[in-house]
Give the backbone structure.
Amino acid sequence: MSTSKASPTSWRSTSTTCDGRSMRRSVGRRSRRFVAPATESTSSVAEPGVASLERERAHRLVRAATRRLQRIRFRSIRVRTTLLATVVLGATLLLGAAGLLAVLDQRLTDNVERSARLRAGDVAALIEAGAPLDRLAADDVDESLLQVLDPTGTVVASSSNVDGQPPVLDLPVGSTRTVAGLALSPEQRFVVVSEPATVAQGRYVVLAARSVDPAEDSVEAVRNLLFVAIPLLVAAVASTTWFVTGRALRPVEAIRAEAEAIGATAAGRRVPEPASGDEVALLARTLNDMLDRLEQASDRQRRFVSDASHELRSPIATIRNLVEVARSDPEGLDVDVLTAGVLAEDLRLQHLVDDLLLLARLDEGRREPATAVDLDDLVFEEARRTRAATPIEFDLTNVSGGQVLGNPKELQAVVRNLIDNAARHARSKVVVTLLRRAGRVILTVDDDGDGIAPQDRDAVFERFARLDTSRARDQGGHGLGLAIVRDVVMAHGGTVAAGGSDLGGATFVVDLPAHT
């Protein structure tokens, strides 16, 4: 019977390692002591102590500044992002590397075991086929060994590298063991398997061993590669993250610097808007919109203060003039004229202050509890009051019931200001209409005056509005009535608009939610 000859495996011997001992040398050092001359004064001896205290104080300040700088730097988004990316990537790579090495080591060890078991199975099959025992393991050398044991446990055939040696391991049939210290090479670790071969003479046992050192060398090579690659990759990612975050935050720093430079003297400046169209650009655009609104509000406030000062100055100046005239000519003083003039200006001043306080309360959002208010009662009351002081005709035939939920005083100010404004500018007639429609209460006030130009119909509701028309502020008005109307109506969830009337003058329409 012909037998197949196993191909020889290449042998790679591993050099034995020897233990070396490191020598330690102790080097003696002499310390020299300098003694100050006896002629030195005590003040010169004390100077080193003062200097050391100063140095220690300086060191403490430096350490405190360093710690503060480190805390400030750690608060930086750029630093935190870089550290977070570095830590997460480093931890992920380390865990991945550990898993990779474990899987690689297990796979390579399994391959070694599989190779040894295949070799043992081939030899067992040849034995069962009647092949000569002395030729079965002739070529198994180098990193593998082979032994064939007869039923009595005696080695009857072996590879040349363990020729003449007893069984390398007492291993149960069909089992596997990884051991070190075999006679073949005490420094190496081997996977040893045993396979049975049953013949007429009894059961033979085939022991096959393969060295796991090549597998471990491969794992070690991969480990060394990862040991170099992981730090380089982490450093590259950290550098990239630092660069990218710095580039991404550069517009934010520009926005911060420009926002810091914006002050009362440079209110017209705006933060730069990046052309990237990302969240930073949206933030810059939002900030600029906010700055625009703040500037507009500041301008309105300045105009309001200026106009209020002007309006307050007028009655105060009139009262002063009356008093000065009375002082200059006490004999020709007409007390009735003086008191009437002072009371009129005082009343005008009181109305102006009340209107200013009402607007300030509306601006602050301070609201009193809302109650049900009958607008028709307010219309009749204010029309009756105005009719008693002016010859203007009032048409109230289309005033029906209309109840809303709100502040009675504020809603009365709305009706009063609308009727006063219409009576002040009407030639002969004012028409007031109040009706309820589709859950809304509609109040309309028309006059037959000169009307309002279309381009001024929105500006007429501004505080202290000055119009270049015949309906501009005249005697008896101070320019806050319609502004109060607008703010109160908006605070009650309604709308107000100015337009042209069928009577030829102006019409004001107030739309409020009805109270159900």
Helices lie at 42-75, 77-128, 213-261, 279-328, 335-364, 375-387, 408-425, 481-491. Confidence is low (pLDDT under 50) at residues 1-51. The longest helix spans residues 77-128.
